Structures are given as structure tokens and as C-alpha cells.
Amino acid sequence: MTLPLIRPSGTFSPRGGEKGLETPRPAQRGEGGAKRRVRGRVRSAWLGSAKLITGTFNAVMNGLTASSATTADRNVDMLIGGQAVIEGVLMRSLTGYSVAVRQPNGNVAIKKDKLVSITKKYPILKTPVIRGSVVLIQSLILGIRALNYSASVVSETEEGQKEMSSAAVAGSMIMALLLGIGIFILAPLGITNLIRHYLMPAMSNFAYNVIDGVIRAIFFFVYIVSISFMNEIRRVFQYHGAEHKTVYTFEANEDLTVENARKKSTLHPRCGTSFLMFVLVISIIVFSLVPSTMPFVVKFLARVILIPLIAGLAYEIIRFSARHLTNPFCRMLIQPGLWLQKITTKEPDDSQLEIAITALREALMYDAVEPERAAVA
To answer: pTM of the full predicted structure?
Structure first.
């Protein structure tokens, strides 16, 4: 049995000696402890929100490149896709999904189920543009559930108890929502208003939305770069790289082994991140439908309400472009996304590759996909 090391609570005086040991007064200790607890809670909430924003972004990008079992063309559509979660990977096939998460004790926790498309019950939802919004919403719901599941697995102690309370998870989600709205919608819109008011009063409606879109893209890039230095987020990006290596292995019709996956690239042209430029251009065009002279609140609400339309249009264009990646114009548009993947994907270790391979193997059990005819998201 090892006894814990007890450190003195005081501080040593520079003059040294045991007489230099100064014990803070109780009030000082209490104030310092309270400040540390507040800083710890703020950091925990910030980190939790960063994980949720990153996971939500992955879910959205995954949704924009997903295929519905009722509308997919098995010869050209992206039948396999996935996203990184906390200490794990979500993989989906046309009719099933699997989430594999590394537990604190080193074991692997797996959650899997069939995917039921709502378009089977309501065929009208298969209509172009509309189907894109439906697939995105379903992927977003699945992605958030996978994030919550991975967070619950990672936060379990050896006794099976949760380290993160429901209140802590809810707090992180609320902070992530507020941060997302504040950083990526309100701030760019407000700055664009200031630019028009003080610098370019004669700005056209289209120019207004171009500036708003460029500022939003800059904010997003700076945010992704800043959180990439967090160790926990870096591990999420490593799992993103593991996901890409694994689907590359499947695409090459090779055995799903760590040895085969290790040799593959972490950058994948069919990753949703590669199509960010498409989404940016489409959002600028759609937002231009709302006059820039409208009140600030109206423009803000329009950016929220028009998201399903942007998602639907982006889905159709991305679906078409994914079939024509050899086209020079399409390659040019996805290049910025590939550059961004150098930040959002990192080289994984073998244990992370093992997680991604496990998730894909489990997901494939729900769908008999012929590897030589499949395309990978």
C-alpha cells in the first residue's frame, strides 16, 4: 500500500529555512481555492463547448455528404461515412451505424443500431433539396447522440460512476450553443453592419453578404486553429484522421487492419470539410435574398431560418461534385477544405486506428456493401 504524498500548504520564504514557511491565513486559502474552482469550471465549460462545437461541425459535414438508403446510387454515392467523437469514432453505412469509444480502463465500448430513414414513410421527403435538409437533420441528431454517448463512456470511473453530471453536460451544451451563435452569426453580422455604417455606406446587398461570409469564415478558421492546441481537441482530430485512414482502407478493398490503415493519408477529398467552400458560396447567395437594409434582428433570424435551404442546396451540389472529383473546377473548390483538414485531422496512433476499424466493421454488419463498387465519405 502506497501512502499519498502530503505537501505543505504554505509557501517558503526566499530567505529559506523552516522559519520561512509561511502559512496563509484561512481567508486567503478560501479566496484562492474559490478562484481556482471558478477557473476550473470555466475551463471545463470552455473545453466541453469546444468538443461539442467540433463534434457538431463534424456531424453537419457528415450530414452534407451522407446518403439515404432510399435514394442512394450504390455505384457512385458515398455509402460509408463517419465522424470523430470524444475518444472514439462514429461510422455509418446505408442502413446502420456504430459508435466505438475507448473506455478509461482501455476496453472498447460499442453502441450500434439500424438506421431508419423517414423518407420511407414520407416519400415526398426524397425530393431534391428537401432530402438534403432531412439527411442533415438526421445526421445531426445521430452525431449529437454519439457525442453524448462518448462523453458518458469517457467520464465513467472504474466503479462505473459518472464523473460528469447531467448539469455539467447541459451547461457545456448551452455554452456551445451560445458560443456558436455569438461567434459565427452575431459577431460577423455586427462587424459587417459597422463596416457599412462607417466605411462603406453605399455597400450593395451582395457585397454586404460577401463581407459577412468572409468574416464568418475567418472567425471559424481562427477558432479551429486556437482550439487545436488543446490536448483533448487534438485527440479528437487524431480520431478524425483515424476515421479517414480506415475508410481509405475500405475504399481500396483491403483488409481492415491497423497495418493497412496506418499507411493511408489522413486527408480525404470526400470528407465534408472539403466542401466548405461550396457551403460558403451558397450561404452568401441565399442570404443575399434578405435585403441588408432590414433591421438587425430580421437579418439574424433569417440566417437561422434559411439554414435548411442552404443545407438542401449544398447537399445536391456536393452530391454532384463528389461524383466529379476529377473535374479541375471541383478540385479547385475542395482544395481549401483539404488545407483545413491539415488542422482538423492529425496522425493517429494504433489504438485510435483500432477504434475506427472496430466502428466500421460493426456498421458494415447492417449493410451488405460491395467494396469494389462503394464510394466512401
So the answer is: 0.77
